[in-house]
Design brief:
Length: 485
């Protein structure tokens, strides 16, 4: 008998994925960060020892001990365990912003650290993140103290199928149509990691199209909290005011910080759909068309490698600036990246990194494959940028290791599931390498048979050819039920 997609999904995810469980109650990230203060997971926030010392923490060894071996329901912010002084929020009633700031540190990325600091300061001053009305998850525009939007925060607990997702359409979907619920090929409720991982892939391949995205902790009363969390926060605050002696014993005052992805906001961009229509009616001049083609190919490379299942034309943005006199930069003039008139931003990367190729009910096609740009063979520029890296096994291995450091920070991380995710990704990389070598176009790329490149040969069921002693390649023969190819 065939297993139901839901069972299969759970089995592949290690059987430990219970929908609706609240991640924020037991965050693993800070514990890992403290356990290994020098080696941070790429794309994640790390609380640094120096920061802790600045806060006046007495002895590091004592703290480590508490964090590593302390009670399981220890609070998000360890310093509170020790009853050390914290800054009190100036605004915002129920929130404790110092909690999230203690969990965020990006010592190797001052620019990003500065953005997060500004976001935390804004929240302290009462400039709260604002929910984005469109989209299926709880996503928030985060502002700086001057009320300028600087980032997009997507809390893990408000992802499309999480219990605190604020969008009622998803709730109806979950209740009325449970069989079609979620994407059967994705690890549920790890969208925030997928967002950060897409940014990591973008950086490693020097694509420059994903706005920098990291895993961050934030707390704001505008986030969707359960009634219980809000009541607890109010109760504790009340107790602290009325009976300070008792109140100080609480592990945490205020609402709990939420873990999620934080993506830097890009200014002046519009949804791709908008510009694509315009370009149809009013074709781009040759020079700009070439730039756009190059940016488009980078989007294809990213999506194909991470096997994005949600790349509609609403999930990528284009910035296009016409020259003032109505003319483009002259043909002869060489335009570098910074002067570029046209730029693509790949946002909303939360539904990628599947643990198997889509093959059940829907194919999750790449919507860009219907565009005329997809019929053009990959340019030499793209081939030169991508091929040297992806055809190098050491580079691919290094990429997998960086992704491991990021993915393992999730509380429900499962090694076998992660291996499956990497087998899909390595298969995609193999196809892409071949397509670039053969001078194929994006359309031809998506028509190639799906491949898995696995570590162990034991489980492979398809046609197998050995790549080397440690990898096997499996052609994925089952066709999707609904597909355009
Ligand atoms: N990094 C960003 N820079 C600028 N605008 C963004 C960015 N991320 C999202 N947006 C805007 O917010 C909207 C919703 O974001 P999206 O990531 O698609 O969220 P959802 O997961 O809810 O669909 C997008 O359509 C876009 O207009
Ligand atoms: Mg979207």
């Amino acid at each position: 008998m065939e297993e139901s997609p839901e069972l299969e999904r759970r089995a592949a995810a290690g059987g430990a994925l219970l929908d609706g469980e609240d991640e924020e109650r037991e965050p693993l990230l800070p514990r890992i960060a403290w356990a290994q203060p020098r080696r941070s997971a790429p794309g994640t926030a790390v609380r640094m020892v120096e920061a802790a010392q600045k806060e006046g923490l007495a002895s590091l060894s004592a703290i480590d001990e508490k964090l590593l071996f302390g009670p399981k329901d220890s609070p998000c912010c360890p310093s509170l365990d020790l009853g050390l002084p914290r800054s009190s929020p100036t605004h915002g009633g129920d929130c404790d912003h110092s909690l999230s700031s203690e969990l965020n540190s990006f010592v190797d990325d001052p620019g990003f650290a500065d953005a997060i600091l500004k976001a935390e300061q804004a929240i302290e001053f009462g400039v709260f993140p604002e929910r984005i009305p469109q989209g299926s998850s709880g996503s928030y525009f985060v502002k700086d103290p001057k009320r300028r939007i600087i980032g997009v925060f997507k809390p893990k607990s408000e992802e499309p199928y999480s219990q605190l997702n604020p969008k009622w359409t998803k709730y109806i979907h979950k209740v009325c149509c449970p069989c079609c619920f979620g994407r059967g090929c994705l690890v549920p409720n790890q969208g925030y990691l997928s967002e950060a991982a897409a940014s990591l892939v973008d950086e490693k391949l020097h694509l420059g199209i994903v706005p920098k995205t990291r895993v961050v902790w934030l707390v704001s009363e505008t986030f969707n909290y359960s009634t219980i969390d809000r009541a607890k926060a109010r109760g504790k605050k009340y107790a602290l005011e009325k009976v300070p002696k008792v109140g100080r014993k609480f592990h945490r005052i205020g609402l709990p910080p939420k873990i999620g992805s934080f993506q830097l906001f890009v200014d002046g961009y519009k949804e791709a759909e908008f510009w694509l229509r315009k370009f149809e009616a009013d074709p781009l001049p040759e020079n700009t068309r070439k730039q756009f083609q190059s940016q488009f190919e980078r989007l294809v490379v990213l999506d194909y490698i991470i096997r994005n299942t949600d790349r509609g034309n609403d999930n990528w943005l284009i910035k296009y600036e016409k020259q003032k006199d109505g003319k483009e930069i002259k043909e002869a003039k060489c335009v570098d990246e910074k002067e570029s008139l046209i730029k693509v931003a790949a946002i909303d990367n939360g539904l990628a990194f599947p643990f198997k190729h889509p093959d059940e009910w829907r194919a999750y096609p790449f919507h860009w494959a219907w565009l005329p740009q997809a019929k053009v063979p990959f340019s030499e520029e793209t081939r030169n940028l991508i091929l040297p890296n992806i055809s190098d096994m050491n580079f691919v291995q290094d990429l997998c290791e960086d992704l491991y450091e990021l993915f393992k920070t999730d509380k429900r991380f499962n090694q076998a599931t992660f291996e499956s995710q990497m087998s899909v990704m390595r298969g995609q990389i193999l196809n892409l390498t071949q397509a670039l070598r053969d001078g194929k176009s994006p359309v031809q790329l998506v028509q190639m048979p799906c491949v898995l490149v696995e570590h162990s040969p034991g489980r492979a069921k398809g046609r197998i050819s050995h790549l080397n002693s440690s990898f096997t390649q499996t052609f994925h023969c089952r066709k999707p039920f609904f597909t355009s190819w």
